[in-house]
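Here is one chain, start to finish.
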Amino acid sequence: MNDLYGIEPGAYLTPKEWGAQLASFGPHTGRYVLVLPDYKIWSEAVLSRSSVGDLERERIRTILRRALIHSPFRERSFDRWSITERWLENAIRYWRTANSKHKFIYVHEECFGNFSENRPDDCKILFSADNFLPSSPADEEIETQPEDYWKVSQWLCRLSAEIHLIDPYFNPVAGADVRKVFVHYVEQIARLKKPIDVHFWVRCRERDAGSGLQKASQEVERLIKEAARGGRSGLRFHYHWVSDDTSRDKLHARYLLTEKGGIQFDQGFQVLRPSGKRNMVSPVGLDLHRELFDRFTSGKNAFDVEKTVKVVV
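Its structure:
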């Protein structure tokens, strides 16, 4: 998840090549293009390196602009970037100092030169002509402390205005192993600039009905207010208690969904026991993401919402 690939601006030359390559990056694949030193400089270099005519170059410009909609790019500041050196020299210097376990660079073979001896041992050079599309699996097993969940979730949350966390057992009142993760998500999301609405979808158990549900809702509200204290004002939290015992649709699979993409968490959002047990996370493909996001944002789910706790911070 969240693999980073550098793409040398001259790695691909035609609109068809750039379109096919960029389609394989973004939240739906769990892979991102690390644009160095920033998107503006990198995209201008892509256009200047292209050897096609003006019309084809404009098509590449359109492809790059449209790709922004699907958020395949990530920027990282790097103050040691030198305008007098080639992109690959700069990129390899960045990769030597980057704190990242995902280190791949796509280059055109003619641009590679003598760098086989100079590149970092853990930086894999992929020739664009020989290895056109990313082949590494995006699925990943993660540790299950609150910080591990947020690490795999934070980039998608930073991109998004609307966030949905879906897990029938994501009830912070039920126990400390869930509460720790819940509170951490609220704390971290409250610090972000872009999110506006955050929704939790949780199953309402039969024993929670009536006064039990009211008491649990008051505790959820208290936890949200306390965790979001000091965060950005105007952020809206919605905690939905769902009854799905007799409905066609069930709360079963666990997801983080936003308008930009989704991540599936095989065993939900909780500290797993025994200690050291890991949780599989996977990117949600484009078609499934569209279907799920539509269901949870347009009221098309065939289950009842017993109660919604709303908190505006």
